[in-house]
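Deliverable D5.2: sample structural annotation.
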Amino acid sequence: MEQRSLAKSVTEVRIVEAAAQMFARHGFKAATTREIAQLADLNEVTLFRYFLRKPDLFWAAIESRLGRVKLGRDLQISLAGKEEPSLVVPKLVAFLLDSLLEQPELYRLLHVAAFELPGANKIIREHLGPIFDAVAAYFERCVERGIIHPVEASLPTLGILGTVVAHSNLHALVSGALPVFEDREAKANAYASLWLRALMPDSPSNPDPVTGEGLQNCRLALERGD
């Protein structure tokens, strides 16, 4: 009995992984269950034993990816405390870059969910809502303490996400080339500096907000994957 359950689990994982790849590549409508079954190296009849409906398979695929997006302990502690934005924003950027690098299908699956399937907001909110709330609450406290400009907390929360997610894709679309960065650390530094300059009151003594400990913190976060 235990062996049968294990076999079922392994087969289901294969189906879900194949579905995530196909849906990310072709979208919900264009990806077929036959293609997904072929990629999973099984027949379509077996696939339907696990997932009777194509939407059920899509939701399983996107949940498998969303479930992997977790805040590291160090970033959780930083967001819950009173750490300065010059230290927290680089960590946040590093977390977003690593999440996208480790899961290249995630952004595309979210796009497909939002535009092709009704009810996507509920499942996305279930998985990503707690992260959004933690980041927004941090920026709200920063506004209350007067250490960043008085902005609505969702602006930097979603703005940083949008910068990390959209910049490379839109740059390639508009210019025909990828953005020029020496490495991932340079990319993280550029994004963090942009938002810290936008959020923090002008400081003539510190023309570049990501320096010293902040830059070192960004480098360590990238190395650890926080």
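Annotation notes: The mean pLDDT is 84. The chain has eleven helices and no strands.
The annotation will be released with the project's public dataset once the embargo ends.
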